[in-house]
Amino acid sequence: IKHPLYKYEGFWFHQGFWFHSEASFSVEVVMALQEEFVAQPTNVFLATYPKSGTTWLKALAFAIANRTMCKGSNPTHPLLTTNPHYCVPFIETEPFLTNPCYNNDLLATHLPYTLLPKSVISSNCRIVYVCRNPKDVFISFWHFVNKLLSDDMSPEMKLEDAFELFSKGVSPNGSCWDHVIGYRKASIERPDKVLFLSYEEMKKDPKSEVKKLATFLGYPFEEGDGEIEEIIKLCSFKKLREVSKANKDGHKAIPNDAFFRKGEVGDSVNYLTPEMIEVLDKITLEKFNGLDISF
Ligand code: A3P
Questions:
Q1: Which residue puts its alpha carbon closest to atom 26 of ligand 1?
Q2: What are residue 144's phi and psi, to 5 degrees?
Q3: Residue 204: CB within 6 Å of ligand 1?
Q4: Annotated catalytic sites, by residue?
Q5: 168 burial level (CB within 10 Å; 0-12, 13-18, 19+)
Q6: Ligand 1 within 6 A of 259 CB?
Q7: Whole-complex ipTM
Q8: Residue 197 · residue 218 · CB < 8 Å
Q9: How far is the CA of 291 from the centre of ligand 1 (A)?
Q10: Residue among 37, 11, 12, 16 at smallest CA distance from 26
Q11: Which helix (H) or strand (E) holds 128?
Q12: What's the CA gap between 112 and 68, in Å, rounded?
């Protein structure tokens, strides 16, 4: 295994420098952030398990918080030239924090709730979490890893091997189910602090979910001025992928197009065997029991 994982406080992480020599999303960074990161009360953290819709959430939140720029499909809008990952930095990728980032208090993280920096829990900052059906997360993740491996000239990861690890919770940032549970419980206990959304609801009824997001971020929409529709269009899979294809600079270490594959609900049925579906559905049913999470 080229990049082994290590368990820390119940969740799995890479160690040290792992990907393109970047010390990001590693256990050392998690520990340093826990102790040293100082959250501001005005911060809003966009939290996700990888492949759950992070890029989409970043684009939507950024577009909402900077929405005077969206008027009349402004051709200079940053989302028309830049990958959303440049607009909202991950706290785990320290170099991004030195970017001015349009100064709008938005930050992103893949950290599990229980491993967030202490100041995020204790301060008045807020968190938006997007969850996604673990079956689709898994298939999206498997494609993503294989895209990175093929760019790195490394052999492909077999679906069966990836499945064994994922279903046991051995993935970067730990078990997908435990990740969701941490934020879901926090959203039930502190709804004013944590907004819990799902990829599936966002696909089904984007207008209602974007409205919810805007209100939570403190930028509620007026009815009927077409602004929500403009933001949904600007942040659509089709539009963001088009921009990412035209922009060759790429995310720091990951090619732009790796973040846009199909953008659909339920694509996992095209890859998983009936037995794999049964295993993942069973885990989901047991783990999410009583938490009012449905896909
Ligand atoms: P698929 O691999 O199923 O297509 P993340 O942003 O957390 O890395 O998640 C990536 C997943 O979100 C990919 O799923 C990607 O295609 C999808 N995605 C990216 N942008 C999207 C958008 N604007 N709308 C819907 N899905 C999007």
A1: 263
A2: -65, -45
A3: no
A4: 110
A5: exposed
A6: yes
A7: 0.99
A8: no
A9: 24
A10: 16
A11: strand 126-131
A12: 33
Please state, as a whole number, how many other Cβ atoms lie within 10 Å of the Cβ of residue 175: 22
> Is the minimum distance from the CB of 90 to ligand 1 under 6 angstroms?
no
pTM: 0.94
* DSSP secondary structure of 178-240: HHHHHHHHHHHH-TTTEEEEEHHHHHH-HHHHHHHHHHHHT-PPPTTSSHHHHHHHHTSHHHH
- Is residue 276 scored above 90 in pLDDT? yes
Question: Which atom of ligand 1 is nearest the CA belonging to 267?
Answer: 3
The pLDDT assigned to 50 comes to: 96
Token reading at 14: 């890479």
d(CA 204, CA 224): 20
Which pLDDT value is given to residue 167? Answer: 98
**Half-sphere exposure of residue 206, counting CA atoms within 13 Å on the CB side?**
15
Ligand 1 atom closest to the CA of 136, numbered from 1: 3
CA 136 – CA 266 distance, rounded (Å): 6
